[in-house]
Specification:
single chain, 511 residues, alpha/beta, nine-stranded mixed sheet, two-stranded antiparallel sheet, 15 helices, 13 strands, globular, binds calcium ion
Length: 511
C-alpha cells in the first residue's frame, strides 16, 4: 500500500480549505436570512463548503406557514436551472441529503442546479407515519398538493433574487408519492415547471393505498391474524414465475419484460402427497391468485382498481408484502392501516380502525372526498401542453407496492384525450425487472442504472422527445454489465433474435 506522505495530507487538506464559497457569496448567502416574504418564517441561511461530490452552496432553510419545512440549496457555480425533489410515502421529514436521485435534491445540485425540497407540510417519525393527519385537514391539503406548490414558488422567487436571473430550465422530480406530486403539478400548476420527471406515480392514492392495499392485506391474513404468504413462499413463487415467464417475452435473460402476457397455473406449486414444503397450501394458492389475478373487487365481483401484484415482483415482496425471513419489511400493511386510520376518510376513524375492517362494497365511495385532495388522476394534460411542459413518466414492471397497471390504464386514457399529440408532452417508460422507484437490487435495473434527468435536459434543449431511455446494469460478482434501451410506451424493446442480449444494439423498439 502506498504511504500517505505529509505532503499528500497537506494537499488533501488544501483542497478542503479551498472549497468554501467566496466571501462575497457568503455575504449574499447570509443576507437571505433577512428576506421578508409573506407566510415564510424561521429563515436561516448558511454557507456550506464543497464536500465529496457536492459543490459549495448556500443553504436556506425555513418554514412556510403553517408547517411546510423546506430547504433551498444555491450553488455558487450555478448552471442557471432549478431542480426540485418531491417526497415519498406520507413524507414527514426534510430529507435534504437523501442518496440517489429518487426524491433527492442533491441529484440536481450535483449538476449545478439550484435545488429545493420540502417535507410535505408536517413532521412524522417516518414516511409511513400518518398520525399527523388525525383531524388535520390543512395538513392533508398541504401533503396533497399545497406543500409542493408553495415551496416551488418560494424557491423560484429566492433563486431569482439571489442570482438576479430567472431559473431555466425548471425541473421537478419525484417518485411514488413524489410521482403523484409530479402529476399533480402538471394538472394543477402547469406553469411552475418546464420539465417533470414522474416515477412510479401513486396517482389514485385513495384507490391504491386504501382500497387496493386493503385487498392485498386481507387476502394475506388468516382468521388468527397471521400472514398466509411469507418470505419462504415468496422465494418459491418467484422461482416458479421466472421459470414460466422469462422466455414468454421472447428472450430468456432472467428478466420478465412483459409480465402482463404471462399466465401461471398455481396448482403446479400445490402441496400434495409426496410433495412437501416448500409448496403452497390451498389458502396460499388463494392468496397468490388474489394478489396476481383478482385484485381489489367488491362482492359483485366488480374491479375497484385496475392493477394486480405484477408477476416478477417476487424478489421485492419482503420489503413490501411478505416481510423478510429475518424480520422487518412488509410495509404495505403498515401503510394501508395508517392511511385508513388517519387520512383516507372525511372523518378519521382513528387508531381502532383495522385493514380488516375495510368493506369493499361501502368504503370505496367514502374515499371520494379525500380523493379530491390527494388524487392526480385527471387524464387531461391540456394546461401543461399549452404551457409547453414536458413530462417523462417511468415505472418499474416489478413494483409490488405501486403496480404499473394503473399507470398503463392512465396512459391509455391520456391517449384517448390527446391522441398522438401526447407524445410531445408526456412519455411513459416501463422498466423490466425494476422494483418500486428502483430502490432494491434485483434482476433488473435500479435507480442508479438510468438517467431521466439527462433525457429531460436533452428534450428541453432540442425539442425532440426521447424514444428510448438507456438503462445499464453494472457488472456484479456473478454477471457482466449489460445495457438495454427502454422504449416509450406502447412500444417495447424487442431482441433481434441473434445479437448478444447484453448489448443495447441487439434491441429495437416495436409494439
Ligand atoms: Ca425474459
Amino acid at each position: 500500500m502506498r504511504q500517505q506522505t505529509p505532503l499528500r495530507w497537506l494537499l488533501a487538506l488544501g483542497v478542503a480549505l479551498a472549497a468554501p464559497m467566496s466571501a462575497k457569496a457568503e455575504d449574499a448567502c447570509r443576507a437571505l436570512a433577512e428576506l421578508r416574504i409573506n407566510d415564510v418564517q424561521n429563515l436561516s441561511a448558511v454557507p456550506v463548503a464543497a464536500r465529496d461530490d457536492l459543490p459549495a452552496f448556500c443553504s436556506l432553510r425555513g418554514t412556510i406557514r403553517p408547517a411546510i419545512s423546506f430547504e433551498i440549496r444555491l450553488p455558487e457555480d450555478w448552471n442557471g436551472g432549478f431542480y426540485m425533489a418531491g417526497c415519498g410515502g406520507l413524507c414527514g421529514q426534510l430529507l435534504s441529503d437523501a442518496p440517489g436521485f429518487v426524491n433527492a435534491m442533491n441529484h440536481g445540485l450535483r449538476r449545478g442546479y439550484a435545488a429545493a425540497t420540502m417535507d410535505g407540510g408536517h413532521w412524522g417519525t417516518s414516511s409511513v407515519d400518518g398520525r399527523w393527519a388525525l383531524h388535520n385537514r390543512l395538513a392533508e391539503v398541504d401533503w396533497g398538493h399545497r406543500a409542493v406548490r408553495e415551496t416551488a414558488k418560494l424557491a423560484q422567487t429566492v433563486i431569482t433574487q439571489y442570482y438576479d436571473a430567472t431559473p431555466s430550465p425548471r425541473i421537478f422530480a419525484g417518485c411514488s408519492t413524489g410521482g403523484r406530486q409530479a402529476n399533480m403539478l402538471a394538472l394543477r400548476d402547469p406553469d411552475l415547471f418546464d420539465g417533470i420527471l414522474n416515477g412510479a406515480p401513486a396517482l389514485d392514492y385513495t384507490g391504491l393505498v386504501a382500497t387496493w392495499m386493503a385487498s392485498v392485506v386481507q387476502a394475506n391474513t388468516d382468521s388468527d391474524g397471521a400472514r398466509i404468504l411469507g418470505p419462504q413462499e415468496a422465494e418459491l413463487i418467484g422461482a416458479h414465475v421466472l421459470d414460466q415467464c422469462d422466455a414468454a417475452d421472447g428472450l430468456e435473460d432472467g428478466l420478465i419484460s412483459d409480465p402482463d402476457a404471462c399466465r401461471i397455473d398455481w396448482t403446479a406449486l400445490a402441496c400434495s402427497e409426496g410433495r412437501n414444503a416448500p409448496c403452497l397450501s390451498p389458502a396460499q394458492i388463494d392468496t397468490v391468485t388474489a394478489w396476481t389475478e383478482t385484485g381489489a373487487v367488491n362482492s359483485a365481483g366488480d374491479q375497484l382498481y385496475p392493477a394486480t401484484v405484477p408477476l416478477g415482483s417476487e424478489p421485492f415482496w419482503g420489503l413490501w408484502l411478505t416481510g423478510f425471513a429475518q424480520g422487518g419489511g412488509a410495509l404495505v400493511p403498515v401503510f394501508n392501516q395508517q392511511f385508513l386510520q388517519f387520512m383516507a376518510f372525511r372523518e378519521d376513524p382513528g387508531e381502532t380502525f383495522s385493514s380488516m375492517d375495510f368493506d369493499f362494497d361501502t368504503h370505496p365511495a367514502e374515499l371520494e372526498f379525500m380523493g379530491r385532495i390527494y388524487n392526480a388522476t385527471d387524464a387531461d394534460l391540456s394546461g401543461f401542453a399549452e404551457a409547453g411542459g414536458r413530462m417523462i413518466t417511468w415505472h418499474g414492471l416489478a413494483d409490488a407496492i405501486v403496480p404499473h397497471g394503473y399507470t398503463v390504464d392512465y396512459f391509455t386514457r391520456l391517449r384517448e384525450t390527446h391522441g398522438a399529440a401526447l407524445d410531445d408532452v408526456n412519455r411513459l417508460f416501463l422498466i423490466p425487472g425494476m422494483d418500486h422507484c428502483g430502490i432494491q437490487p434485483g434482476p433488473g435495473i435500479t435507480s442508479a442504472g438510468f438517467d431521466p434527468l439527462g433525457a429531460m435536459e436533452d428534450w428541453l434543449a432540442t425539442g425532440t422527445a426521447p424514444d428510448t431511455l438507456m438503462t445499464t446494469r453494472p457488472a456484479t460478482e456473478d454477471a457482466a454489465e449489460w445495457s438495454r434501451p427502454v422504449c416509450a410506451w406502447p412500444q417495447r424493446a424487442v431482441h433481434d433474435g441473434s445479437g448478444d442480449w447484453r448489448e443495447a444494439a441487439s434491441f429495437t423498439c416495436s409494439e
